[in-house]
């Protein structure tokens, strides 16, 4: 499973369409307009390179020893377009001087180069030239016996994805793209290039029916000729004689005969159309909703790929979908996301899934390493835009958390509370990472006030990690994806004193103080800032600590908030206690404005997107 996320215009779909061109694109599909605007004028080319890993024995047999020798588990191919010339090159282990022979375009050229090679490299002990095939076999045998002298070379070939119909990977690896603008109505009509037409060609044998249609046509032709002779023959003969007699008045020696030409009866193949049944109602595809049409498209393409792929266990289909959430009801989108993941995880289906999405429904934070964040930016105002792709790999996240969070909690893909709200955060331009929902409610409420920076407008999301101890994992993931993040946490200063004042066990109060100080130092150490037991306020441009906890800061820097909070509860518009919605509504409606560190945090969040 691979999930591409990023803002509109970043280039997510370009990745999927580049792969579509690599596997299925026509040699005339590209023009100079498709070349990157910032390309070197002297080298305006398009290159798409794909690496295939985990090759099976059957894959190697299909590709051949030249491209996938024994012992190699990967295979790399590159398709390049330049000035209208389209060519495929494949990485192969070869002895470089032999490639000069193989690049020859005629037998005479190959013979000349081979003979020069034999003369120049007598230590190779190659036989003299006899035939092209024998020379190639001699070079292959030498390469097989001297693997230590081989090097990787990109060699030109059209036989791997063959533009001339020779496609060595077809049936082993197939790529199917469901474009956002693909229309189910058009694809459900039988035709050579439509989905339903291609499915019928691959799954329905019409040979027997065609033969019977032709026999029926011949029988109809014979029957038609017999009827013509029986019912029209005499009448036409008599009419011809009458015409001959009339012509004889004006000329002699000529006659008139009326002949019937029966048209050939050609069998017209039966056409197939798609109808949708719903209980007792049967309708055409165009009368269905867009959501169902989209589901039908993807299901049909999956079936087409499955039926067109080799039935062996080693065959693989990569189903790529542009915006799978398109036209989907939220509940249906969740089901769709689950089905796609199940398809990708089922070992017996041989399915890989890739999609470009704007929907958190299609991002599972447990599999953050499957996300590719695509960004498009200009480092120079007058320069060309550059596209970058970022990934939070398991290795990178574990390395960042080494000494802070156990590896097994990351690698085992537990459903962790700290990443529950991460799906939406992955789509943000910047993230404010806080401990809990009440922090989120306050900051969102403040940002919605007039005169404050609007988080929504600037693409800033507040994400909660369900506790201070859980802040590090989501931060590491966001950092690897290069999403600017501001982290805010409670210092919990004075929590032990409150326990003592309420008559709690002094030992438990001291232990709480020690734990809080230890956790604070751990956090500061992770962020590579000077350690202290109870930090407060701004620690760095991207790290803040509430002095004590959020409620103490609100009481000090925004006393009017508490009055509004109580008023909302009294009016029945809020809930008593730590309720995020009530906290947020009070922050939004409080007549007085916030001050102090509260404003500093909102301003720091705005600075994340101002860089």
Automatic annotation (TrEMBL):
Which InterPro entries does the entry link to? Answer: AAA_GajA/Old/RecF-like, Bact_Antivir_Def_Nuclease, P-loop_NTPase, TOPRIM_OLD
Q: Which UniProt keywords apply?
A: Endonuclease, Hydrolase, Nuclease
Annotated region (Disordered), positions in chain:
492-512
All copies of the OLD protein-like TOPRIM domain together span: 426-492
Pfam families given in the database record: AAA_15, OLD-like_TOPRIM
Q: Where is the Endonuclease GajA/Old nuclease/RecF-like AAA domain?
A: 1-363
Name of the protein in question: ATP-dependent endonuclease of OLD family
* Source species: Actinopolymorpha pittospori
């Amino acid at each position: 499973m691979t999930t591409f996320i990023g803002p509109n215009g970043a280039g997510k779909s370009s990745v999927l369409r580049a792969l579509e061109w690599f596997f299925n694109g026509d040699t005339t599909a590209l023009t100079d307009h498709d070349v990157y605007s910032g390309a070197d004028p002297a080298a305006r080319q398009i290159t798409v390179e794909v690496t295939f890993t985990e090759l099976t024995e059957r894959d190697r047999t299909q590709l051949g020893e030249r491209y996938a020798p024994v012992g190699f588990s990967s295979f790399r191919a590159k398709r390049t377009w330049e000035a209208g010339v389209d060519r495929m090159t494949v990485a192969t282990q070869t002895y470089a001087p032999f490639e000069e022979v193989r690049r020859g375009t005629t037998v005479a050229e190959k013979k000349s180069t081979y003979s020069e090679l034999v003369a120049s490299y007598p230590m190779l002990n190659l036989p003299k030239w006899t035939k092209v095939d024998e020379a190639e076999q001699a070079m292959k045998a030498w390469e097989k016996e001297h693997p230590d002298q081989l090097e990787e070379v990109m060699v030109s070939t059209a036989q791997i994805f063959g533009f001339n119909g020779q496609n060595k990977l077809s049936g082993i690896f197939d790529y199917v793209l469901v474009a956002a603008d693909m229309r189910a109505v058009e694809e459900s009509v039988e035709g050579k290039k439509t989905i339903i037409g291609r499915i019928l060609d691959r799954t329905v044998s019409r040979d027997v029916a065609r033969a019977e249609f032709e026999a029926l046509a011949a029988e109809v032709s014979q029957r038609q000729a017999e009827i013509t002779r029986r019912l029209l023959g005499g009448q036409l003969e008599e009419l011809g004689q009458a015409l001959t007699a009339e012509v004889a008045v004006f000329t002699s020696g000529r006659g008139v005969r009326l002949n019937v030409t029966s048209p050939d009866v050609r069998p017209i193949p039966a056409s197939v159309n798609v109808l949708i049944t719903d209980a007792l109602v049967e309708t055409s595809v165009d009368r269905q909703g867009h959501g169902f049409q989209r589901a039908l498209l993807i299901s049909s393409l999956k079936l087409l790929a499955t039926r067109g792929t080799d039935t062996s266990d080693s065959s693989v289909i990569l189903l790529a979908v542009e915006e799978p959430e398109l036209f989907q009801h939220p509940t249906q989108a969740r089901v769709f996301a689950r089905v796609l993941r199940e398809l990708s995880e089922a070992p017996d289906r041989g399915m890989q899934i890739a999609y470009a999405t704007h929907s958190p429904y299609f991002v599972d934070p447990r599999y953050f390493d499957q996300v590719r964040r695509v960004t498009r930016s200009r480092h120079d105002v007058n320069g060309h835009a550059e596209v970058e792709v970022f990934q939070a790999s398991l290795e990178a996240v574990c390395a960042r958390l080494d000494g802070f969070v156990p590896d097994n909690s990351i690698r085992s893909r537990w459903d962790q509370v700290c990443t529950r709200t991460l799906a939406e955060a992955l789509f943000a331009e910047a993230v404010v990472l806080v401990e809990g929902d009440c922090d989120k409610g306050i900051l969102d409420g403040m940002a919605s006030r007039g005169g404050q920076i609007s988080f929504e407008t600037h693409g800033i999301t507040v994400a909660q990690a369900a506790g201070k101890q859980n802040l590090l994992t989501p931060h590491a993931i966001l950092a690897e994806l290069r999403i600017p993040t501001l982290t805010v946490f409670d210092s919990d200063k004075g929590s032990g004193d409150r326990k003592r004042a309420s008559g709690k066990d002094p030992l438990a109060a001291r232990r709480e103080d020690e734990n809080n100080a230890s956790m604070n130092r751990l956090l500061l150490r992770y962020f590579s800032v000077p350690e202290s037991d109870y930090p407060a306020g701004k620690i760095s441009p991207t790290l803040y600590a509430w002095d004590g906890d959020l409620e103490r800061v609100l009481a000090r820097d925004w006393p009017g908030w508490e009055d509004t909070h109580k008023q909302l509860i009294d009016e029945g518009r809020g809930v008593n206690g730590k309720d995020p919605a009530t906290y947020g509504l009070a922050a939004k409606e409080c007549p007085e404005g916030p001050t102090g560190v509260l404003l500093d945090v909102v301003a720091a969040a705005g600075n994340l997107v101002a860089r």
